[in-house]
Design a protein that fits this description.
Layout: E1 7-9, H1 14-22, E2 28-29, H2 44-60, E3 68-78, E4 81-83, H3 89-99, E5 103-114, E6 119-131, H4 136-144, E7 165-169, H5 172-176, H6 180-189
Parallel strand pairs: 1-2, 1-3
Antiparallel strand pairs: 3-4, 3-5, 5-6, 6-7
Helix pairs in contact: 3-4
């Protein structure tokens, strides 16, 4: 058996960390400090990917060789616009009023860098989200919980907004913050098998 590679998650997201741990992985967390507002791209999918790559590269530059760095970033595409975390409660309420009864596409950029070789593999995963129709009182209660201020698109599948999402088409993990099937493929591109990274 080869020595196990160590993983680094270039994200402060507890949801991403939770997904990786549930999948038998135990990365350490190093937050990138990338200024997301300073980065732009032509489309929401490209923006998610550029942000993920920027986060992974920033963290990889600080590490000693040998670790595998995972960078991710999520945006919700609605009406062709990329929506990240709402700036405040007022924006979160407006966002939910615009989303309810409609579909959006949650796009998550993924980037894996092997600091041992300098190789990188990246891609964006997309999942269609069908929003329900919470009334104004339900939206107000949800926003008052504070949860939507910390998640891309002002919603998540694994929290209080779950009853307001009628369904999805695609990978649910991608909506929570990280597509494990895509991560497996990106690792394979770098000649790393995800099963060799299991810690338990």
């Amino acid at each position: 058996m080869t020595d196990q590679r160590s993983l680094v998650l270039a994200s402060a997201s507890p949801a991403r960390l939770g997904l990786l741990r549930q999948a038998g992985l135990d990365p350490r967390v190093v937050v990138s400090g990338v200024d997301e507002d300073a980065i732009s791209a032509a489309t929401p999918g490209e923006l998610a990917l550029v942000l993920a790559e920027a986060k992974a590269k920033a963290v990889a530059a600080e590490l000693t060789a040998g670790e595998l760095v995972i960078g991710c970033d999520s945006v919700l595409e609605l009406d062709g616009r990329a929506l990240g975390k709402p700036a405040d409660a007022e924006e979160a309420v407006a966002r939910w009023r615009a989303m309810r009864g409609r579909e959006g596409v949650l796009r998550t950029g993924h980037c894996v860098i092997d600091t041992a070789t300098g190789r990188q593999s990246s891609a964006t995963a997309s999942t269609t989200v069908r929003f329900g129709t919470p009334d104004d009182a339900e939206v107000a209660a949800y926003v008052a919980s504070g949860e939507p201020l910390y998640v891309a698109g002002a919603f998540t599948l694994d929290g209080r907004s779950a009853p307001f999402v009628d369904g999805i088409d695609g990978d649910p993990g991608n909506v929570i913050g990280l597509s494990l099937p895509l991560l497996r493929r990106l690792l394979a591109d770098l000649d790393v098998r995800i099963v060799d990274l299991w810690t338990n």
